[in-house]
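Priority: low. Protein: Sensor-like histidine kinase SenX3. Input follows.
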Amino acid sequence: MTAAHEQRRLAALHEYELLDTPAGDELEAVVRVAALVAGVPNATLNLIDENRQCQLTTHGFEGADSARSDSMCAVRFESGDVTYLPDAGLDAAYAFNPWVTGMLGHVRFYFSAPLVTPQGYALGSLCVFHTERHELTAGQIDRLKDLAQVILALFERRRQARANEALAAEVREQHDQLEVAIAELRRSNHELEQFAGVVSHDLAAPLTVVNGYLELIEERVARDDPESARWVAASTRAVGRMQRLITSLLTYARAGQAPCRPEPVKLGELADQALNDLRGTISDATVTVPADLPVIEADPTLIRQLLQNLLGNALKYRRKDRPCRVEVGARRDGEQWRISVADNGVGIPKAQRERVFEMFTQVDPASGQGHGVGLSTCHRIVERHGGHIVAAETPGGGTTVVFTLPMRHPVPVS
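Result:
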């Protein structure tokens, strides 16, 4: 046997963590049964490490560790074959062993079945012996081999149990860490939502004052000074953009903070309410809201805001070369509703269809339309309802946004 193989064998032995540990009831029972099968008074489970023979459990005598050089089991256990000696004193390899000569024992009959792992590493042996000459039948030898396999299976089960326990501990630790991370993320998100709401509110009031003073300046100065009029107009537009951004941020914050209270509500009525809020932007556009839209279970305030954002985008990002058309649709898909808002507008490039739901993402920042908050607000609303939202291309050009809502308690259309 090479030194490298011996190192691997020892590593396999130590991996089982059996040395110097209690054998346990099952292993002790197997050793007792081995003595009974062999019809002899003594049996032992021996493990061979670097320098010693460790008698893990014994039957019929008081076990103890001894030097590996004195071990009878260590002579041939690595061969993988059983050793059967009706009279060990007649075998040259054992006749002068201290367990035979009387120095450590008076063994005559000796039988050992090596404990060899599936990887081919011998850990020790199941041994039965007697101080008198004794013979075994072929059936007894086969049963002792079976018991050696049982011992190996118990070794493996014990090792696997430790591995499972370690894995379970690791999973528990990771779960605890995940819980902490989730709690921290929720806290952080809550603080960010509060921050967005407070900052937006605190910014809105000063901007109202600024806008008021700009109106006064326009009345007193700008009417007689064209250059000043241009400056005032640019400032007023900038204030308007900031006010719209603040409104978007407040809407986003409220979408995350406001309670989500699902209730049965007619989807068609929510769409009509959203369109009523957008009536100033519908000119020259055809918006189709089917009469058979279903009753859904959702928070009506949040879903109305969601539809208003989606319909507003569809009306805003229209193409100049054809009339604007928008269609709302809904169909059942298993245990959820798939609701869509489709337009024939400028569309969203494929590479950006996932990013558009991120905060402050704009398809065309140079256009000056929007702030990249509306779709992120839609994403938050759908997420709070337990659904998903995606953007796709409308056949023939344009954008179709589809979001799902769980059918918690399906309600018939009335």
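The chain has nine helices and 13 strands. The first strand starts at residue 42 and ends at 48.
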